[in-house]
Each structure stands twice: as structure tokens, then as C-alpha cells.
Amino acid sequence: MPLTRTFACLLMAAAAPAFAQSADPQPPKPAGEQVITPQVDRRELKLPRFASNDISVGLLAGRYATANFGSSTVTGLRLGYHITEDVFVEGAYGRAKVTDEAFRQIFPNGGIFPTPKQNLTYYNVVAGYNLLPGEVFFGRSNAKISQGYVVAGVGSTDFAGQKRQTVVAGFGLRVVFTSWFAAQVDVRDHIYSLDLLGKRQSNHNLEATAGLTFTF
Hints:
13% of the residues lie in helices and 56% in strands. By secondary structure, it is mostly beta strands. The protein has a single domain, classed as Beta Barrel (Porin), CATH 2.40.160.20. A hairpin with a 2-residue loop joins strand 5 and strand 6. It starts with a helix and ends with a strand. The relative contact order is 0.16. The model has no long low-confidence stretch (mean pLDDT 85).
């Protein structure tokens, strides 16, 4: 028994330094050191390209009231560019046939024009501003964006052999059905001077039109 006890004491004495060394705490890692380095493959992202819908092309049709000669059908084209959400510029070209039939019924020797009908054409460039953004309801649950706007600009009118500088001003309402399609109605005053009746005077020629607009 004494020999066995002595052998056990020797074993404990030999194992004590190794146990003490294993019990020592590990030194702390420096702050901010990344323990795990992720292996992530980077991939390039393609950003989506949304259509700006700044350019618009439209058709118009309606009535054009020529001073002293009544009203006639007018048709034309429009090309616009939306600078901001509220500000836009627009160019328009229109064509109408004006008759002097009323004068031919009064004067036995003929009317004012060489022929019963004369072509009236115009082009102009206007700047517009959306004053009244809102909605138009079709039924109880179907609403479309609407824009009430005013326009003003300058252009030229060619009528009965006379080409005159023209001032244009008016207002309109646009209803946006989709991101690329809208309908609009316009009332515009074309102001220019003529001397067809022996005296040159400034005339206000009202135009009321409806049209379809396509944006892209």
C-alpha cells in the first residue's frame, strides 16, 4: 500500500504543470478582427430603365371660328415636350376651309374670296402650365388622372393670301387614361389682324378642339 500511494503522488505531481498550463485563459483577440471571412461572389446589377414619357404626339379636330366668316371644321397635329411635371411646351399645326357664302348671298357680283372656299392654315408654339391637377371619375370606382392647364404663345396664320403673326392663348383639360395615352379638350384664341373688308383690324378667332395624345 505505501508503494501504491507513493506512485499515485508522483503521477499527480507530474500532471500538475500540464493541467495548470491548459487551464490558462487564451489571450483576447484584438478588437475589430474579423473571425470569419465570407466568400461571396459579387454580381453586377442592371438598374431598370423606366420610360420618361416626356414627348407627346397628338391629333386634334374641332371648330375654328374665323371673324366675319363663321366657323368651319379644323384638323391638325400637336407635338409636345414636358419639361417638368407641370410645365410643358407644345407646337401645333392646323388647317381649315373658310367660306364666304354669306357674302355671296348679299353681293350679286360675288363674294370676298376669288373662290367660295379658302384654306386657312396656322402653326404656333405655346408654353403651358398645369394649374389644376385632379381626377375624373368614370363610375364609382374608376378614376383617371386629370390636368387642367393654361397655354400662351405665338405663331403664324396664312389665310386668303395674307400671312400674319398670331398670338395664341387658351386653356384645356387633359385626362390621362394610361402611361402612354391621354385625351384632351382645348379652347384657344388666335389673335391676328386682317384687311379683307377694306379695313385692317385685329380679330379674335376662337378654336374649340378635342384630341388624342400619345406619349413616349
